[in-house]
Amino acid sequence: MEIFDIFFNLDVMQRAFPILMRGLLNTLFLGASAILVGGSLGVLICLVRLYAAKPFRLLATFYIDLLRAIPVLVVLILVYYALPFAGIVFSSFVAATIALSLVLAAYTAEVVRAGIEAVPKGQFEASEALGLSFLTTMRKVVLPQAFRMMIPPLASYCVAIIKDTSLASVVAMDDLLKQATDAQALFANPTPLLLAAAIYAAFLWPLVRFTSWLEQHYKRGYR
Questions:
Q1: Which of 32, 44, 113, 207 has its CA 20 to 30 A from that of 59?
Q2: What confidence category does residue 120 fall into, taking pLDDT thresholds of 50, 70 and 90?
Q3: CA 150 – CA 112 distance, rounded (Å)
Q4: Exposed, middle or buried, 135 (CB in 10 Å: 0-12/13-18/19+)?
């Protein structure tokens, strides 16, 4: 019973739950913002890497390789703690959104590149013969075909970014993990931390299973 009271204290759990729910909302908002911004930026960087002038292609390649090599936590610390020395100050939420978006954009760019390059070159030639513009070709011909191949890895990266939102607690953002650690200190009990872990699992586990289903579904579709 003593171990149960320490790690699964129902009274502490009941009082901490509303606090953690506020943190969960912030976590979901942060994850959605990072996915929206990072996904859009990744597509743009991919197009620069594939079709821009050589100096810009090299710059895009350098960005992708660099951001994939640097841990997300390091990027977050640089944005939040280093940029203020240059007079650039962001709130904890904005800094976390920027850091997660920059990293997700690098991975998204690689996935989109692989998807576009998998489309037969004949599709581009046919579009050119029909007089379609580059943007129309990408929007109506190439991307719809490439999208099927991009969905499973993009979904996996989105789930990974949502998990990485827990790093925002390092810059004092009131996400789920930060609220859990504050509640743990307030109640002098580790139950809020275990409750936070259960909440993470409750909404991330279905997403993990969904990405696995997507992989199997589109694998069968390729066959």
A1: 32
A2: confident
A3: 6
A4: exposed
Determine contact, residues 31/38, Cβ cutoff 8 Å: no
One-letter amino acid for residue 166 of the chain: S
Q: By the 8 A CB rule, do 64 and 106 touch?
A: yes
Quote the CA–CA distance of 195 and 175 in Å, as a whole number: 14
The total number of residues shown for the chain amounts to 223
Structure tokens given for 113: 């590149």
CB burial of 146-174 (b: ≥16 within 10 Å; e: otherwise) equals: beebbbbbbbbbbbbbbbbbbbbbbbebb
DSSP 130: T
pTM to 2 decimals? 0.88
Residues 6+ apart with CB under 8 A from 31: 100, 158, 161, 162, 165
pLDDT of residue 220: 60
